[in-house]
């Protein structure tokens, strides 16, 4: 249904980036349709940290929609970044609920021929009466689904962006992209755009292209030092460590990335030794079958990716953690973990010598035995 048939436009969703992006598109369309000049356009912030700020935001909105255009014509008003419709202390407050009721009453009195109004909100609690009322009475758009399944919503975002760009994204490529990027929607969209420029129009983004071009950014757990360390290349690892500290990095992300990867490799080594998993061209073959037998050992099934639970990882990515398809010996992985613990304790004692502590640890782990 078009915006002209309703008093106002309401865009909402769980992800503020997606909501804001669609909001900008709708605002530009409304401004173009109305012919409103810069003096007849208002963009107001609906972000509020407490009930008092909710009251101020709605008061500014009321003033804006009730202002008569200086040179006649139609006004366009956008109340953006609304966060007081969420299931939050501010959103649940009695004062906020009363103010939202006042906002609803104000919206019913709008004349769309005089003022085009756009509201964008993220996140929202769709159980409340106001969003339900908006769904029936506004030009309503829900972006990214209800947020019940973050992985499904993000996959939909990636696939939708690929379609918009005139390319295809295979299911395996989408899974690997999420494993590498994590839940950062903005970064996910930018990565799809980057990948699309690497293929012909109408082409397909394959898993291999994602593996080649998309950096590992999820959870801060993939750094060059870790990549080099697990190849066993001592000179490369030391050079990567030097670059990390030269660019202003500190020890915590490095040792965290090493520990996270080592934990996954320990679990993978145990599964491989037991014959439950083998490394193949598509990563860790048999990981999903092994999950049926061993997931219970980790307690409740985890929905989010975790280095403590190999079954929350992407099977293709897990298999690629083993350089050249070869897993380090179990003894080496156990020794690595102990060295990481020792280095962490030493960092507490020598906080100003972090690079030296990590360099010494790496040499102990990778230097050939005398």
Please describe what this structure looks like.
The chain is an alpha/beta fold and 370 residues long. The protein folds into 3 domains: 3-143, Rossmann fold, CATH 3.40.50.300; 150-215, Helicase, Ruva Protein, domain 3 (Orthogonal Bundle), CATH 1.10.8.60; 220-366, Zinc Finger, Delta Prime, domain 3, CATH 1.20.272. Helix content is 53%, strand content 11%. It has 16 helices and 9 strands. It has helices spanning 16-34, 51-65, 89-92, 94-108, 129-137, 150-164, 171-181, 185-196, 207-213, 224-229, 234-246, 251-273, 287-294, 315-320, 330-349, 354-366; strands spanning 9-13, 41-45, 75-82, 115-121, 139-143, 168-169, 204-205, 278-280, 283-285. The strands form 3 sheets. It has a 5-stranded parallel sheet with strand order 2-3-4-1-5, sandwiched between helices. Strands 6-7 form a two-stranded parallel ribbon. A two-stranded antiparallel sheet has the order 8-9. The chain is elongated, with a radius of gyration of 26 Å. The model has no long low-confidence stretch (mean pLDDT 85).
């Amino acid at each position: 249904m078009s915006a002209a048939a309703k008093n106002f436009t309401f865009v909402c969703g769980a992800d503020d980036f997606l909501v804001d992006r669609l909001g900008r598109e709708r605002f530009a369309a409304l401004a173009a349709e109305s012919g409103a000049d810069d003096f007849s356009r208002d963009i107001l912030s609906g972000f509020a940290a407490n009930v008092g700020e909710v009251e101020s935001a709605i008061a500014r909105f009321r003033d804006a929609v009730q202002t008569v255009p200086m040179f006649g014509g139609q006004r366009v008003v956008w109340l953006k970044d609304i966060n007081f419709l969420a299931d939050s202390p501010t959103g649940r407050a009695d004062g906020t609920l009363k103010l939202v009721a006042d906002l609803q009453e104000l919206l019913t009195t709008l004349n769309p021929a005089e003022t085009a109004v756009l509201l964008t909100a993220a996140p929202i609690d769709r159980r409340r009466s106001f969003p339900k009322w908006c769904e029936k009475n506004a030009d309503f758009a829900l972006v990214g689904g209800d947020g019940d399944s973050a992985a499904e919503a993000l996959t939909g975002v990636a696939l939708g962006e690929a379609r918009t760009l005139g390319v295809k994204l295979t299911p395996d490529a989408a899974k690997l992209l999420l494993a590498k990027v994590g839940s950062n929607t903005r970064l996910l969209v930018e990565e799809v755009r980057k990948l699309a420029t690497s293929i012909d129009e109408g082409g397909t983004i394959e898993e291999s292209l994602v593996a080649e071009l998309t950096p590992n950014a999820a959870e801060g757990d993939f750094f060059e030092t870790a990549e080099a360390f697990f190849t066993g290349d001592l000179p490369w690892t030391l050079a990567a460590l030097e670059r990390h500290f030269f660019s202003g990095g500190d020890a915590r992300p490095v040792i965290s990335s090493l520990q996270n990867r080592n934990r996954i490799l320990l679990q993978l080594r145990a599964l491989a030794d037991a014959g439950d998993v083998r490394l193949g061209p598509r990563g860790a073959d048999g990981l999903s079958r092994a999950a049926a037998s061993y997931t219970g050992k980790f307690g409740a099934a985890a929905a989010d990716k975790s280095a403590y639970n190999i079954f929350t990882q992407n099977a293709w990515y897990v298999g690629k953690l083993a350089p050249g398809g070869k897993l380090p010996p179990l003894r080496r992985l156990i020794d690595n973990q102990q060295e990481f613990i020792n280095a962490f304790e030493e960092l507490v004692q020598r906080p100003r010598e972090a690079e030296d502590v990590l360099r010494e640890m790496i040499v102990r782990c990778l230097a050939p035995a005398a």
